[in-house]
Amino acid sequence: MLIKLAFRNVKRQFSSYAIYFITVTLTITMIFAVNNIIQSDIMSLLLVAYFDGVKDILTGLTGLLALIMAFVLGYATNFLLKKRKKEFALYLVMGMNRRNIIGIFMFETALTFIFALGAGILLGLLFYQALMGIFTSYMELDYTLSGYSPVALLYTIIIVCAVFLLSSAASAGYLKFEKISKLLNSEKIAEKTVRHPVIWVLAAVAGIAGTFIAMSLFIDWLNTAFFETFYLAALIIAFAIASVILGSMGICKGITWLIVRARSGRAKSTAMFTARQISAGASANAVMTGLLAVLMSLAIIGPNIFFSVSDIYTRQTNENYLYDISGGISSFEFGEDIDDAAFENTAYTYVKEYTDKISKYAEIEKYAVLFVYKQYTDPDSYDYKTLVKHSQFVEACKVVGYTLPEETGQNFDCTTSDKSTDPFEWSYGLLRCPADILLNYADDFSVVSDSQTDGMTPAYGILCVDVADEKYDARALDAEVNPIDDRNNKINRLTIKEYERLDMLGQGGLVMLGDLYCSSVFLLLTLAIFSLKMMSTVSQDKQKYKIMWRLGTTKAQLFRSMFAQLAFFCFLPFIIPVLINIPLLSIIAFMYHGYGMTLPGETALQLAGYTLSIIGVCLLYLIAASIVSWLDIRHSLKEES
Amino acid sequence: MKKILTVEQVTKTFGSGSVAVNALARITFDVEKGQFVAVMGPSGSGKSTLLNVISTIEPPTKGNITVDGQPITGCGDNEIAVFRRDKLGFIFQEYNLLDTLTVAENIVLPLNLKKVGPAETAKRLADIAEKLGVTDQLKKYPYELSGGQRQRVACARAVIADPAIVLADEPTGALDSKNSRNLMELFTKMNRELGSTILMVTHDATVASYADRVIFLSDGTIHTEIYRGERSRADFRHEIIQITEALGVDCNAD
Q1: Using a CB-CB distance cutoff of 8 angstroms, which residues of chain A are in contact with residue B105?
Q2: Is residue B80 predicted with pLDDT exceeding 70?
Q3: Considering the domain B3-247 in this protein, what is its CATH number?
């Protein structure tokens, strides 16, 4: 009998349970996908390559997600309970005992939860592949359908079931101990008006100003105290969060009051009803809106900072490495007492070995070998001049696409600039070369005619290579030419620019994963709460829509009013996060500046694009919530007739 | 006298086939402009169904209804909404005020829906609030008022747009006897001073005795109807009680 009642309840309360189902499904999807990533082969490889502790951090994040899920699930269960309090009170009045009621509610939620678990895992399988697709594409790894982990499945089931049992226990406790009179009268709570609205208007202004000030302080901190006073950064971040919450609450309680005041006495059609509804709803949900605004701000700030850092890494790699592939050949490798001819012969043996290995992975466009000589100015001192042969220097310049003018002669002095991206420049007979032209061996040197080095033994040789391919399997080439020795140390023979870039991306990839993860969780949490809040609000307001309809409001007017209210609540937490883009752009500009770069024009587009895409996701939620809510209202209007 | 409401051969059937129930069976009557009519009858006699059919909340199965010369059967959703907005005023047992709006905003809601300008709205609000004695409450919210005050506000909202007819569904149902009496005096005032035409459903003989005319329903048909004429309210009430007792109704004749 009770089971039959529970089944019937789920069927009758379809719209409420649909929201519960969607929220739980999406949460499980997220947990399952992230657990799969943590257990994936790619993650294992990255962790070996970079940082073992990251796995602990990610596992910790899963714990955080479980906490967030507990919050969402608790909120969703509370939403269902709130709608059913009167019904449960009536069951009690009719003589049903509390154990039966708890049984009915538990059975209903468990039934929905089991379906959500199945749906969440199925969706999680797809979401995991999508996340891995993004991740591998960013890491420039080959994407193959990633394998699923039974451990991840087990972890997911354990986590979500534990969270479900916890939230069920809380609901059971509530139903066990709450007074019947309170359950019966739960709907008769009058909505409160805003107190001290002018103060809240000021709070809105102060909050928005505070957010800007906090971000400006953060820029100052980056500029002056970075790596020194982290407690200061923590204080600034706390100030920023407090400002976002205060600003959002001010908007909820103050700005909406201003809107109502402006409308008062001049409203037409359903405008006053809509404005008052928004004002009452915003006021009641001010704190929640503030918290959501913080989450949305983090969701917007995180990826934007990350993508900018990633761009800076790529640019920095270009500035740090002049040659596509380069390496030094030191006389220490051959012994001290080696003569010129023997050094050159041995060096070319290495060059042959290296170029053969490189050719297996990338097509060599051009390569050059440059011997560097030390000419001691006084046999009794260590002062020396660095010399390179003219013919070899000409070839090395060609590797980086520079042709020496013929009129320069065969003897001239050179110096190096700060960046590898700087051009070759002649000034008063001195050639300024890009950094790294002699790798790190000398900043100043002289190019001399080949004959001047006759009889000298090179101090070292430099191999510089230009490869035709922009993208190739640099990881594999690195593994072949720079092997790991018996003591687990890497032997660095060649520097591979593409590998260095991928290496930086790899480190960034871990940050990206954490960032994508957090942003998705924040977004999910925000949207889940949005939808529950919206549905809950509309559900509570059905009687008002009925009254408006009886008074002669058309269904189209009712829909517009409902949509305006939902849209306001959906986009209210975005006001400050969207404004945050302005100081955020300054912070990103500062980051570029810190690396000696100027802010690329497309960064503003990146910010706008990312923010719009988050708003787009919310818009989809808004449309879905509007459809479900409108069907609910229409159903109640039909019941009325 | 101009006929404001015409109900002709109206039938309302719920269900179909062997389980069909006739809530209203070929009911016919008129209400003239300025009349105050009460509808009484035992539970299940069709009182509320009649009100719902007239207020377009439910369509009749058969028959025609005309309000202020406008037939309401066979209209579309939007036309019906506009009809309700322009021609009808409602007073419900549970007041049905919107708790997010102030008293003033609740009262002017029908004018807002009709898109009446602010100056005219303010003038009419001041006028109606004074006549119905709610001027002091205009800035308050419904939850700050007593039941009787809320029903006054509901009355002000019902008549502010000068509807063709005010429909009241058990308006005293949630009030004590003193507030019921006050409300009925207000109805009388609305009827006499504002010229409102009122159709009220009630099961209370004392409340019905304030009307000019009482229609008694039984099993979905008009059992009888009586007019007060020049009689005192006490005499009229006595006759109402006699009829309701004959119909077997508990008529709250306190």
Answers
A1: 264, 267, 272, 276
A2: yes
A3: 3.40.50.300
**Amino acid at position A178, single letter:** E
- Which one, of B204, B239, B247, B200, lies nearest residue B222 by Cα? B247
Measured in angstroms, the CA of A81 and the nearest CA of chain B are apart by: 23
Taking only the tens place, the pLDDT of each residue in B170-185 is: 888 877 888 888 888 8
Task: Tell me whether strands A425-427 and A412-416 are parallel, antiparallel or unpaired.
Answer: unpaired
Phi-psi region of B3 (alpha: psi -120 to 50; beta: other; left: phi over 0): beta
ipTM given for this complex: 0.78
Does the distance separating the beta carbons of B101 and A552 come in below 8 Å?
no
Please indicate whether, in this complex, the C-beta atoms of A553 and B113 are within 8 angstroms of each other: yes
Domains of chain B: which residue ranges? 3-247
Q: What is the mean pLDDT of chain A?
A: 79
Residues in contact with A209: Cβ distance below 8 Å, sequence separation at least 6, in sequence order: A243
Long-range contacts of A380-386 (CB under 8 A, 24+ apart): A385/A445, A385/A446, A386/A438, A386/A441, A386/A442, A386/A444, A386/A445, A386/A446
Per DSSP, which regions of A205-354 are E strands?
A: 325-330
Q: Name the minimum distance, in Å, from the CA of A557 to any CA of chain B.
A: 10
Q: What is the pLDDT of residues A231-246, one digit of tens each?
A: 787 888 889 888 988 8
Residue pLDDT, tens place only, A13-59: 666 677 778 778 877 887 888 788 777 776 666 655 555 556 666 66
The C-alpha atoms of residue B167 and residue B216 are separated, in whole angstroms, by 17
Q: Cα distance from A185 to chain B (closest Cα, Å)?
A: 15
The residue-averaged pLDDT of A306-324 equals 78
What lies within 8 Å, CB to CB, of B18 at 6+ separation is none
Quick check: A392 and A370 in contact, CB under 8 A?
yes
Angle at A460 between CA A456 and CA A465, to 5 degrees: 125
Q: Tell whether B115 is within 8 A of chain A (Cβ).
A: yes
Contact between chains at B113 and A550 (C-beta distance less than 8 A): no
